[in-house]
Amino acid sequence: MDLSELLEIAEQERQSQKALQIRCCVAAGCLSSNALAVKTGLEQAVTEAGLTDTVQVSGVGCMRLCCQGPLVQIDTSAELEHSEILYEKVAPDQVSAIVATLQSQTPANTPTTLQQGDLTQPFFTQQRTIVLENSGKIDPERIEAYIAAEGYQALYHTLYEMKPTDVINAITHSGLRGRGGGGYPTGLKWATVAKATAERKYVICNADEGDPGAFMDRSVLESDPHRVLEGMAIAAYAIGSTQGYIYVRAEYPLAISRLQIAIRQAQRLKLLGSQVFDSPFDFRIDIRIGAGAYVCGEETALMASIEGKRGVPSPRPPYPAERGLWGFPTLINNVETFANIAPIIRHGADWFASIGTEKSKGTKVFALAGKIRNTGLIEVPMGTSLRQIVEEMGGGVPDGGSAKAVQTGGPSGGCIPASAFDTPVDYESLTQLGSMMGSGGMIVMDQTTSMVDVAHYFMEFCRDESCGKCIPCRVGTMQLHQLLTKIREGQATDVDMELLKELCDMVKHTSLCGLGQSAPNPVLSTLRHFEDEYRTLIDKP
Amino acid sequence: MTTRQQIRSTKGVSLKHPSGDKRFQILDATMKRHQYQQDALIEILHKAQELFGYLENDLLLYVAHSLKLPPSRVYGVATFYHLFSLAPKGIHRCVVCTGTACYVKGAAALLAAVEQSAQIHAGETTADNQLSLSIARCLGACGIAPAVVFDGTVCGHQTPELVGDRLKEYLGKEQ
User: Fold this and answer.
1) Which of B39, B142, B156 faces A307 most closely, judged by CB atoms?
2) Residue A291 is nearest to which of B40, B42, B104, comparing CB atoms?
3) A76 and A209: one domain?
4) Which listed residue, of A5, A425, A537, B123, carries a Cα 20 to 30 Å from A71's Cα?
5) Coil, helix or strand at residue B167
6) CATH of B3-80 among 1.20.1250, 2.60.40, 1.10.10, 3.40.1800
7) Which residues of chain B have a CB within 8 Å of the CB of A460?
8) Chain A residue nearest residue B37, CA to CA
């Protein structure tokens, strides 16, 4: 495989594109609303109507507006005037109606049963897609589709035209920061691992998306798996590694199967394996499947799990960059971080650095869910305000309610009150508000949600998920949970409130890993912004 | 002779399970594919559970001996991860997602409805072995919250009524 062969595959794929594309979302959200039957129905209907020469039905990744699934999008190619139509909540018995609209070529006469989506609504127009640029457009199970979308060109470019230090400099210069939640500068992490001298080095992709309410990584893996593989391969070249692992949670069977397909396809075309692009660079990727432990999202616990052990964290330092998997220097990045790498190489670090705020560059994918009209995935430039996300893109709270708070960062994050919705979303601003960027779950809560209940819910989560290695986390989360139960039942006194605050402080500062250190965050942030809700439960006569 | 002794006595020769159960041959093949590497323990336990439905002590011992790991290590891993089950499961499975998005949209009411109609708590199996109920932390199906998984199929936008109807199908069979 060389560049001309790669470009030829891309050209062939573009040539074989038919004038009319019917794209049917086959990501997990739509699949559970019967999207597969819709897709097969459409294929059949197109064949029966004799339109196979001009119409192509394909299964694609997430189209982002998950609440309206199954989604079907019809695109006419650029020869005619480019137009796109989106159909929502398509049922298998509506496929003939869709094909009929193609034949009469008057999409305006849509039968009333078909629900047409508005592609000009802010939910779509205010997005800026980098990570999700191919999501909902290409077939995730065909490597040709990814290659046609300029895939693997960045890898070729790095292998033949860049030195490892150039790659690291580019990533550092782009200002990319870890998308898993911590926000550690990616370039700096790569440079540290690259500097380490060892017989072997490893690259790990953390796809153990455990935060409840977050499904960005699942969507990226299901919609565009090759993007992650390419990002990992570029990272491996930069740090000098030949073996990579993707640690995926077992709850995502579809993501696992699409990754397996993608790895096989890439190996067949010699884009992974030995002598990638006929260069001296070798890189293998293996999948490791989790077994349902939230703590395995923590990097040292994740490595223990890859080694086949109980997923308990170990103290840092030594950091994985010095001593990681089996004691060798290891680079761990999140799915979304790796998904950003190829575009940075393709378009240049300056291009990436021009998006976002001063300290947080690029875009961030959020999973918008909860009490909001448009639930689904959004990708926005860093620095977009929460108000814009919730009220304009999300369409506000349904049934005339009003948003009370937004929960970000999962069990490690906190609740941001509606009064702070004008805050730009970046790493620093969210931390200042007592929450955190987290991996990108964003759950909207309305007036009916009790904040004490939310704190109680997250504490129950942390109590159950504590691995039990260190006492502050194991016992502290249990005690905190008991205190919150007491408060919720209206049996607590001021003494309990003091104890709650004191215990939060203790657990935060003495726990071993991120799980325990951040477990009190939901309590602290609700105490900070919604203390009146606690007070009404305590001052009850 | 217990299974353990039988396994011991055959150590060093070819390690075959004395029961002659075909499923052990598949498990052996999986372990061989992983070159009996100890770090593949989790993958092998996944396969074992897929074949046998749950991980009983005999099976864990068999894996321990095959991979030359202390039984305590295998037992420790099997009990650490939520997805491994050491007790048999019912014929039907119902998993209620209690992720944040589902929680905000009323997952607690769904769980209460299931617990009431099946008369079991999360993590338990009905006495007639028809239904196992469990909770999931997040299925990543937040766009269609609240979600419930019936026998491996994710169903979105659930209500206590919808869940109740489904359970009647499962539980009504033997009545």
Assistant:
1) B39
2) B42
3) no
4) A425
5) helix
6) 1.10.10
7) none
8) A308
Task: Report the residue count for chain A.
Answer: 541
pLDDT tens for each residue of B7-26: 544 444 446 778 888 899 99
Residue A226 structure tokens: 């090759």
The residues with which A73 forms a beta bridge, in sequence order, are A23, A86
Domain that holds residue A86: 18-120
Chain A residue with CA closest to B141: the answer is: A29
The beta-carbon neighbor of B138 closest among A213, A288, A371 is: A213
Q: Does A466 touch chain B (CB under 8 A)?
A: no
Number of domains in chain A: 4
CATH, residue A479: 1.20.1440.230
Interface of B with A in 85-144 (CB under 8 A): 98-101, 103-105, 136-144
Distance from CA of B121 to the nearest CA of A (A): 16
**Is residue A106 located within the same domain as residue A191?**
no
Kind plus residue range of the DSSP H or E element containing A406: strand A403-408
Mean pLDDT by 10 residues, chain A (541 residues): 93 90 92 92 92 91 91 77 85 88 61 81 95 94 96 96 97 95 93 95 95 92 97 97 96 94 96 96 96 93 96 94 95 97 97 95 94 94 95 92 92 93 93 88 92 94 94 97 96 95 97 95 95 90 61
CB contact under 8 A, A32 and B82: no
d(CA A287, CA A246): 5
Smallest CA-to-CA distance from A504 within A531, A480, A486 is with: A480
With beta carbons less than 8 A apart as the criterion, state whether A171 and A190 touch: yes
Q: Chain B residues with CB inside 8 Å of A297's CB? A: none
Q: Which two tokens stand for residue B114?
A: 């299931």
